[in-house]
Every structure is written in structure tokens, then in C-alpha cells.
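Ticket #4471: structure output looks truncated?

Reporter: J.K.
Steps to reproduce: submitted the chain below (331 residues) through the standard prediction queue, then opened the result file.
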Amino acid sequence: MKRHFSSLPTAVLCLACLVAMAGCGGADQPDQTSAGGSSAESGGKRPRVAVIMKSLANEFFSTMASGAEQHQREHADQYEVIVNGIKDERDLSRQVALVEEMVAAKVDAIVIAPADSKALVPALRRAQKAGVVVVNIDNRLDAEVLKQEGVTIPFVGPDNKSGAKKVGDFLATRLKSGDAVCVLEGIRTSFNGQQRREGFGQAMEAAGIKIVDSQSAEWEMSRANAIAASMLSEHPDAKAILAANDSMALGAVAAAKSAGRGELLIVGFDNISAVQEAIREGKVLATADQHGDQLAVFGIEVALKLLADDKASPEDIETPVDLITAETLSQ
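Returned output as attached by the reporter:
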């Protein structure tokens, strides 16, 4: 069963209701940052919620961390939070280790943005077996692997395919049928990367625009810079680059500048502040905003609801994703 947040204000309202139903909680921070003090200091047992993200070097995830910490400060009597992240988007072993560390620390819930949609499932199954509530945010876990492992984990996050299609459709208004474009993909084993690639592809196909090259830059700016430079050299007729996240879009901006391709149209996904500035300067055409400052909060609220009511049925919740352009930024 899936619920939808049709807009951010509605989402916040819904989540406020979940807070009211949630219980109380506590936590220490062994890895990155923590908020809330100890349960002994607070005089009561509050749930300890661990938020495990991908690379905190990526502005999107550092914004997500800040959002979680701010929410905890505003609800300090209800729970404590531990915020963890990995240094490299590809460091799956470290993220698995973080899950195991949080289970050993006896947290009550784990809210995770998995670096890989398949590799994290066994560790999360073990966490559930240990009595930890698990909520999946940002990047959906693989449905087939979840089934194989006999695990049910609710996903709280946006429709990445829909968001990418919105960005692609907007780009198509600046191109004509038959034009050539290139795509910078995320990590190919990540469901959100797959969905964004599909959304871009659907938009380009509908407009009769040809994707002449599509490669993974694994979410990273430096890799995207090198791959985009190669793409532009091999496909000098390419009119645009569609990047599956904003870090890669910025890498493409640097490559376009080095190649003297100031007219190249570039789009991204995430709406980080550096890309907002690039949009205002005309270096990036558009991006998608999945409200990173609230994504972890959405997951925390669901975790608190499940902790407060062990008979509650875990269900997926679709959160907002919006097209961001120069026009929307000026409003």
C-alpha cells in the first residue's frame, strides 16, 4: 500500500500527525553527530533513531543530516537521533558496518538511504531480527532481494522516475526532434539511479531526441567531469547533458567550460545550493527538488509511528519532487 504527499505543506501536516502518535526516545553518537543528550539526563526513555546516509561530502546528504538534527531539536522530548554517513558513495562495506554498529549500540530504529539497493538488504534483515525498526529513504531497496530475504521495509521517498521525466520534459522544450544528448548516470545498482535514467529516457523518447551516449559517473563530480569531457569530444553534435544528480551536473558544467561549449544545456537532480546558483547564472537549465532537508525527517516520523504502535502496518509513502528552473527560483 502506498500513500502520497502531493505537496510539501501537506507532507509536513501529515508528518505532524505522526509525531503526535509517536512515543518518546534516547541516543549517543559514535560516528558522525548526535542530538538529544542521554536518556538518564532526560529522566525518561526516549527512542534512539539512527539515520544512516550516503556521502556527507555531498551537499544533498549534509542538508539531509541538518534537517534531521533540526527536527530532533524541535522534538527533543520525543526522541534522540544519531546521524551517520560514509565518505564515498561507493563505500558499501562501511555502510554495512554502520548498520551493524547501530544494532550493537541498541538503537531502536534505523532510517537509511542505502548506497546500493541490493547489498544493504541482508544487514537490514539482521537489524530487523535484532528488534530494530528499519525505514528506507531516498533510494529504494530492491523488491526482489527483499522478497528473497523475507523482509518488509517501508520506503519513504520520491518517485525518481517522475522527477527525472519532469526535468527531461523541460529540457525537451529547448531542443528539437532529432537532436543528440548524453546522460550521466548514477551508480547502476542503485534503484534511484535506474529510475532517473528511465525518466530521462522516457522524456527524450517522447520528444524524438536521441541519447547518443549514457555512462555512469557514480554520482561523483570529478568522474562526471572526465566522462562528460570524453562525451563532448566523441559527440561534438550533442546539444545537452542530463545528469542524474547535481554533483554530476556540476562536473558537466566544468567539462563544457573547458571544451568551450557554453551553449550546452545541462540538467541535474537534487536542487543543491551550488546548482541553484548555476541555474541563476545560466550554466544549468533545470534540476529536481526532492526536498532533501525533509527526507530524513519523513523517515524518522514513520519510524516513530512504528515504534509507538507495534501493530502499525509499514507502508510506503511517496514524498514530493518538484521541477526547479530559473523561473521557479525567481518566484
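Triage note (M.O.): checked the attachment and the full C-alpha cell line is present. The CA atoms of residues 64 and 311 lie 29 Å apart.
Status: closed, working as intended.
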